[in-house]
Amino acid sequence: MTNNFNDIRAYRVGWLLTICDFLFAFPLLQIWAKRTTKSIRLDYLGDRKQIEQDIKQGAFFMTNHRDIVLDAAWLSLMLRVRYFIRPFIGIGNNLFAYKWIEILVRFNRCFVVKRGAGAHAQLENSKQLSAYIRSLRAEGKSIWLAQREGRAKDSNDLTQPSVLHMLTLGEADFYENVKAINICPVSINYEFDPCDYLKAAEMQLKRDNPKWRKRAKDDVLSMKTGIKGYKGNVVYRLTPSINPEIDAMLAAHPEYRELPNKEQLQTVCDIIDRHIHHGYELFERGTEFDAYIESRLALIDIPNKDEAFLREKLYEMYSNPVKNHQIAVESLKLKV
Fold this sequence. Notes:
Elements lengths: L13 H23 E8 L3 H9 L3 E4 L6 H14 L4 E5 L6 H8 L3 E4 L5 H20 L4 E4 L14 H7 L6 H8 L1 E8 L5 H13 L7 H13 L3 E7 L4 H10 L8 H18 L9 H11 L8 H29 L1
Parallel strand pairs: 1-7, 2-5, 2-6, 3-4, 3-5
Antiparallel strand pairs: 6-7
Helix pairs in contact: 6-11, 8-13, 11-13, 12-13
């Protein structure tokens, strides 16, 4: 690894990682799984043998984003147990409220995604990160990265073109470079989101004051709430690499290679989103769900609390995955 990546790379001390995994990280994750979930499982959508072949080649796991800490941590645990791989994990430096957090996560295969810089600095940061990710993939390493910067507050999970753009910076053939990354979308499904009431509150605060921004302590609160809160059933659903779908799309529409970069980015984002949406687990919501929403509403303590707005946003968080799943299923029927 070159010195060009020293400020963002994951610390790669093999023996220390193994000790941390089996003495601290894995037992701790298993304890929290038992305390805060009804069940947690790794599932598949499509040909499991093909998915496992994709993983053997080194996969770029791109997921929707529900919890700041556990989304990647639990996936890493299950992949390590089942396939003896542990992906490198991208984590935003906005979450480093304290220096010890950065040191700890970088010793646990996390690399730094720099955020909050000016336009020129952000471009340089993106080039550095893109080169680092390509160096990991050249070694056959697997990687986890969320499909967007931050979590979708309303659970309307859509891949940000800027994330895909960053991954392919400095390379000539866009589609071939996307294929070289070997993106395998993963759907992350929580029956109950412990941070739902915090996200609803953030949406009202942002609505009432467009200049409102989260503080470092807000991210710390979200991390604590996400770790400690009850999640019900949790399902991680792996889907195959998107490479065959890109090949089929280009075979049917060779003119897509000549599209402007913005439109090329969106064609691939649409494929990723369709995989993630199709992989959603749809949980049964009985009449007691209304009482659950009211209990979450009662937890919100902000100025000028708009209960009607907040209630609507809470329901929206749980209905958007259902709507997006139905759209994805219908689009696949049309393709057939």
